[in-house]
Design the sequence.
């Protein structure tokens, strides 16, 4: 049997299973709290798994393993940023947000500010960040599935994008948060198991001696010892000082962006109490940390056992390094059939990974559209819960359809930078607004609105005029050049701009509401009046 | 929602109470310095990866170099801080938070 056939069969099992869960979840999704927050009845462990499932995208599974395989150590730098970021979420955001919010990121901001301008800003930012991230994932899915299933025609890629998009719409429209969470849990378990299995096989092959694995990787990659040191991909010596500042800029956006990503923030609402939110982040940190340690072995293992040349022949960016490694190690230990089976398993896990992440993003953006923009801005709160949920489902459908259309349009462009941009916007706009509103007494509407728009506009503008959009062979539009900003990552400028905009906006406005601050402070720290889990 | 006005004064009263201020300071005195510390530790790591490559490439044993050990230490510190925070929260924050919550709930229910 060819591995493509087996991959497809495994994937069909995953889809059938998750669709079953989705329809079960749809029957238990009645209220707004069910749709937006899964009834707030997931346990800390379940939500921790779902956090892992939401966060460990194909970019971080196949992408980081590929970067490590081809550029070595620099891929590890990426995973460390992604992991340390969770401490910001754990210490400063998760519990306080669970206690003071309801369904969306904007709930926390609207608590003590003038609701309409703040919800508009937060809603726009949520949708922009989620759609950037979504596009990068879906375009990546088209290319990836093509590679794994051996579909190389344009039409094949387009059908892949449409297929992924339709499944994602079904999960979100019918399953809401409950269905999406279960899809993410199943995916997290599959991904961790698959990655653990390959990691053990690779380590076993090298007698559990990391040093000899690294030595072999350095030799076979064609890069030598440089593979084990920083500097082959980010801030290379050829890029000079600008490249190194760009590296620091990327590092800052990664570490500060996570706690401002709307699809991550809404996960804190799916548990009954702030303490469960804490537990879920701890589970998440454990899973994500162990997973990134696996990718280190996978990446160097691919360099050692597959070799740099064979990887770049399949995909220049190295996205197929992990599946190629699965095949190589399987063949070596269990023979030809073993190689086919392991390759098929890892390819199916990769599809599951993509689906779980895009579903989370669609849910975050459609929830914010329905709850923030439709219910509170357009209708000024005069809607019933039922109407709101209907609108949320319709907007999930519309956003999903728009994302499919945009991804088909963008599929021949290099849009991988959109993930870094989403992190930059989250760190520059959303994070200052959230932190100021939880911790700064004087913070007000003008401050929140300036922080969000200031961070959002600065990040987007700097990226538009950076080498990732024009003026470089790898740019989105390689044939034109209108760039003047030297860095690919705007964080080092846009994050301070976001915080400064929030500060200036606040002190230049007279608005100050001491009693509302008293309420959010007491509620966020003690859990008084926090939304309860719904009963079924 | 009709009790909003009434609630607001309860919250202000709690906010200025001795025990709430104790809770807030236990929380902030742990969380703020720790955030500064782990961010500084992480930024140091990123800066060294950009600007101190000779040092990062120094081999310690076999093919294990400073860069790899420094990276693994970021994992270790992240796991340790997460564990230490939950210990601190369970011992120093949760009991006080529960006490205050019951108090507010009694007052607002009245």
Sequence:
């Amino acid at each position: 049997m060819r591995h493509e056939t087996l991959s497809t069969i495994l994937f069909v099992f995953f889809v059938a299973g998750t669709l079953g869960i989705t329809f079960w979840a749809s029957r238990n999704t009645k209220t707004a709290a069910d749709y937006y927050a899964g009834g707030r009845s997931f346990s800390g462990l379940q939500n921790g798994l779902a956090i892992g499932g939401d966060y460990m995208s194909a970019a971080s599974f196949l992408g980081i393993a590929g970067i490590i395989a081809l550029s070595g150590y620099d891929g590890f730098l990426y995973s460390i940023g992604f992991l340390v970021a969770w401490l910001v979420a754990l210490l400063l955001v998760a519990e306080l947000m669970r206690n003071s919010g309801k369904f969306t990121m904007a709930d926390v901001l609207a608590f003590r500010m003038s609701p309409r301008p703040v919800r508009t800003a937060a809603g726009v930012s949520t949708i922009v960040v989620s759609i950037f991230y979504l596009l990068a994932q879906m375009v990546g899915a088209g290319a990836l599935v093509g590679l794994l299933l051996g579909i190389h025609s344009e039409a094949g890629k387009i059908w892949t994008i449409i297929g992924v998009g339709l499944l994602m719409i079904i999960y979100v429209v019918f399953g809401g948060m409950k269905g999406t969470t279960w899809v993410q849990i199943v995916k997290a378990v599959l991904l961790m198991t698959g990655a653990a299995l390959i990691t053990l096989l690779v380590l076993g092959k090298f007698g559990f001696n990391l040093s000899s694995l690294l030595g072999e990787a350095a030799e076979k990659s064609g890069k030598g010892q440089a593979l084990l040191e920083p500097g082959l991909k980010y801030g290379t010596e050829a890029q000079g000082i600008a490249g190194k500042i760009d590296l620091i800029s990327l590092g800052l956006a990664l570490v500060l962006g996570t706690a401002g990503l709307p699809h991550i923030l809404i996960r804190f609402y799916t548990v009954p109490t702030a303490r469960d939110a804490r537990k879920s982040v701890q589970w998440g940190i454990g899973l994500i940390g162990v997973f990134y340690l696996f990718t280190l072995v996978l990446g160097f293992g691919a360099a050692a056992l597959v070799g740099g040349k064979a990887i770049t022949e399949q995909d220049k960016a190295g996205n197929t390094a992990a599946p190629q490694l699965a095949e190589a190690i399987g063949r070596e230990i269990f023979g030809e059939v073993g190689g086919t089976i392991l390759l098929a398993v890892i390819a199916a896990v990769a599809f599951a990974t993509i689906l779980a992440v895009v579903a989370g993003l669609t849910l975050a953006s459609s929830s914010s559209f329905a709850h923030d923009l439709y219910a509170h801005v357009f209708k000024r709160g005069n809607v019933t819960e039922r109407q709101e949920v209907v609108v949320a489902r319709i907007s999930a459908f519309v956003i999903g359809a728009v994302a499919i259309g945009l991804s088909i349009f963008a599929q021949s462009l290099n849009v991988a930078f959109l993930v870094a941009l989403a992190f930059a916007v989250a760190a520059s706009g959303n994070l200052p607004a959230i932190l100021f509103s939880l911790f700064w007494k004087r913070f007000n509407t003008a401050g929140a609105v300036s922080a969000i728009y200031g961070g959002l506009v600065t990040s987007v503008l700097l990226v538009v005029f950076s080498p990732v959009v024009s003026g470089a062979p790898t740019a989105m539009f390689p044939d034109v050049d209108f760039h003047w900003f030297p860095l690919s990552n705007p964080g080092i400028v846009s994050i301070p701009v976001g915080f400064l905009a929030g500060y200036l906006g606040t002190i230049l406005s007279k608005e100050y509401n001491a009693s509302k601050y008293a309420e959010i402070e007491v509620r966020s720290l003690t859990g008084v009046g926090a939304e309860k889990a719904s009963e079924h | 929602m009709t009790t909003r006005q009434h609630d607001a004064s309860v919250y202000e009263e709690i906010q200025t109470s001795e025990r709430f201020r104790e809770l807030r300071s236990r929380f902030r005195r742990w969380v703020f310095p720790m955030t500064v510390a782990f961010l500084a530790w992480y930024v140091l790591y990123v800066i060294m990866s950009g600007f101190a490559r000779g040092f990062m490439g120094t081999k310690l044993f076999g093919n294990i170099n400073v860069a790899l050990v420094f990276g693994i230490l970021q994992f270790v510190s992240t796991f340790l801080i997460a564990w230490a925070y939950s210990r601190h929260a369970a011992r120093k924050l949760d009991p006080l938070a529960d006490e205050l919550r019951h108090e507010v709930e009694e007052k607002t229910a009245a």
Summary: The mean pLDDT of chain A is 92. Chain A has one domain: 3-415. The two ends of chain A are 46 Å apart (CA to CA). Residues 321-378 of chain A form the longest helix (58 residues).
